[in-house]
Specification:
- Pfam families: Abhydrolase_6.
- This protein is an alpha/beta fold.
- Helix content is about 40%, strand content about 15%.
- The protein has ten helices and six strands, in the order αβββαβαβαβαααααα.
- Strands 1-2-4-3-5-6 form a six-stranded mixed sheet.
- Strand 5 (about 105-110), helix 4 (about 115-120) and strand 6 (about 125-130) form a beta-alpha-beta unit.
């Protein structure tokens, strides 16, 4: 009986919704102890609230309550075709009010970085951290050719990109998975699909719209803030007053996960 209750509670915590003032739903997950210091985690692109699940062991060890909201069109959050990066802080403030949070930290990685920058609210945010999130205005020549091609398609042919991504998701969703010695095909499918396909639960519109947002000007003036390829990150860091840039040699966009505990420890105030 106790085991079942714990399981149900865990499921409820990672699939919550909240009604925003304009009627949209905002999906979010929580990890770590409910009594821990609150940390708003903004997932990458394309991703969902489930991305933060990898931080659960660290959160429990460090007494951190991770709250992972989904941006419009991803997972459980209502798609908003006219949203901008700078609209995100209003949604976060509404969620913080709903959860009765007066102070919280913010962490955004990759595609979540611009949204973390936009949420530099001095009266509410104690610390914020941006990981592997270069602004495109720093120079697209640093980005891989495929990334540049996708960005141009998102800007000039968004409808085509939506159809293409929807088709690719369907192909992968129902494609054959190889047998594993330790997991059956069904077990592999259950484990992978929950994380891989949640961003596309409502289709690819949210993903394509965000691709447009991330590859254009974010609407953020780094110089006015008082609180990926390293050349692009340096460009951004030089324009943010009091910014501390930490570079990890020999790490990539994906191996940075090895430093997550250090990164999280730096963004949450010491108690």
């Amino acid at each position: 009986m106790n085991t079942r209750v714990c399981t149900l509670n865990k499921q409820a915590r990672d699939s919550q919704t909240f009604s925003l003032p304009d009627g949209r739903l905002l999906g979010y997950a929580e990890y770590g102890p409910p009594s821990g210091y609150p940390l708003m985690f903004f997932h990458g692109f394309p991703s969902s609230r489930f991305e933060a699940s990898v931080l659960d062991p660290i959160a429990r060890c460090r007494n951190i309550r991770i709250i992972a909201p989904e941006r419009p069109g991803f997972g459980l959050s209502t798609f908003q075709p006219r949203c901008r990066v700078t609209d995100w802080p209003a949604d976060i403030q509404s969620l913080a009010d709903h959860l009765e949070l007066t102070r919280f930290a913010v962490l955004g990685g990759s595609g979540g970085g611009p949204y973390a920058l936009a949420c530099a609210m001095p009266n509410a945010v104690s610390e914020w951290n941006v990981v592997c999130s270069p602004p495109w205005e720093a120079g697209r020549q640093y980005m891989p050719l495929m990334s540049r091609a996708i960005s141009l398609t998102a800007i000039y042919w968004p409808g085509g990109l939506v159809r293409l991504m929807d088709m690719l998701v369907r192909m992968v969703r129902w494609g054959d998975l190889e047998e594993s010695e330790s997991l059956t095909i069904e077990e592999q499918r259950t484990r992978l699909l929950r994380i891989l396909f949640e961003p596309f639960a409502q289709g690819a519109e949210g993903c394509v719209h965000e691709a447009q947002l991330l590859t254009q000007n974010w609407g953020i003036r780094y110089e006015d803030d008082t609180n990926a390829p390293v050349e692009m990150i340096r460009y951004m860091a030089e324009r943010i007053p009091h910014c501390v840039l930490r570079e990890y040699e020999d790490d990539t966009h994906f191996t940075i996960i090895r430093h997550l505990e250090e990164i999280i420890s730096g963004v949450v105030p010491k108690t």
